Each structure stands twice: as structure tokens, then as C-alpha cells.
């Protein structure tokens, strides 16, 4: 699986991971084992669950539920803390991601919280190519208050 080809230069956008699909309807893609339906984001030669060697690409739902989270207070230099690292269940597919647009404290983050996929710029190189990452935000957040 690879990200759609994109040109570099001013206005170009590239996903920071190859399983993030950009465009009108951003979403994640996974490799699904045709034998047991286990899903993986990284490329596999064989399924870690059953050993089968055939996979198909599948779209991962963009809505999910927080299954586990931690509030990170210490990170590598240059990474702002605190932030919320979570495991999101997207209809059976576990996604590790950062929760965004929510204060990083237990009063605002809870297990079972409904979330949705969002993308955001990570940085821009000297040619103007923008790197784009993803995270999840609370699903009940009003559309009018979303950050661009």
C-alpha cells in the first residue's frame, strides 16, 4: 500500500504515513488478511495472526471510540507536552493516535468517548510541500469550531 503520488513544491500535500489517504474525504487504509480478517497498517509478508500471505486493502472507518489513553507529560525534545496518546477502536480496527482539539486532562478525555479522524499540517519544506498528519478529535465538537 502506498500513498497516492503527489508532486512536490508549493501547494503539494504529502501524508506523513503511507496509510493516510488525503483528499476530499481523508481516511486511513489497512492491509486485511483474506484468511482471518486481521488488519495491519504496515506492509506484511505474512499475517501475524494466522500466517496467511494474501492481503487486501480496506478503508478504515473515520469514526471511532477511545478504548485506552494516557496523558503524556515527557516526550522527546521539540514535542509539546502534555498531549493525549490513545488507542481508538474504529469498528474493530485499533488505531494508535493523538487526540487533538481536547484539553489533555482526565476531565475532558474518557474511555468510550466518540471521536473522528482529522488531518493537520505538520510542517512545510523549503519547496513548499506540506507534510500532513492525522489525529482524532471528539466527534461531538461542532463543525463551526473546528480548526482548519
TrEMBL record:
* Pfam families for this protein: OB_ChsH2_C
Listed InterPro entries: ChsH2_C (IPR002878), NA-bd_OB-fold (IPR012340), Thioester_dehydratase-like (IPR052513)
Q: Which residues form a coiled coil?
A: none
Annotated ranges, domain ChsH2 C-terminal OB-fold: 57-119
Listed PANTHER family: BLR3430 PROTEIN
What is the protein name stated in its UniProt record? ChsH2 C-terminal OB-fold domain-containing protein
Q: Which organism is it from?
A: Pseudonocardia ailaonensis
Amino acid at each position: 500500500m502506498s500513498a497516492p503520488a503527489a508532486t512536490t513544491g508549493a501547494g503539494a500535500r504529502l501524508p506523513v504515513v503511507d496509510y493516510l489517504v488525503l483528499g476530499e474525504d481523508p481516511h486511513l487504509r489497512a492491509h486485511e488478511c483474506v484468511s482471518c480478517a486481521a488488519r495491519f497498517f504496515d506492509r506484511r509478508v505474512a499475517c501475524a495472526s494466522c500466517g496467511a500471505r494474501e492481503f487486501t486493502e480496506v478503508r478504515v472507518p473515520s469514526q471511532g471510540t477511545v478504548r485506552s489513553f494516557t496523558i503524556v507529560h515527557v516526550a522527546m525534545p521539540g514535542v509539546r507536552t502534555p498531549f493525549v496518546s490513545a488507542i481508538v477502536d474504529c469498528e474493530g480496527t485499533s488505531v494508535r493516535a493523538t487526540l487533538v482539539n481536547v484539553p489533555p486532562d482526565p476531565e475532558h478525555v474518557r474511555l468510550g468517548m466518540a471521536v473522528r479522524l482529522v488531518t493537520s499540517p505538520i510542517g512545510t519544506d523549503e519547496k513548499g510541500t506540506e507534510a500532513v498528519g492525522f489525529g482524532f478529535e471528539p466527534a461531538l465538537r461542532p463543525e463551526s469550531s473546528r480548526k482548519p
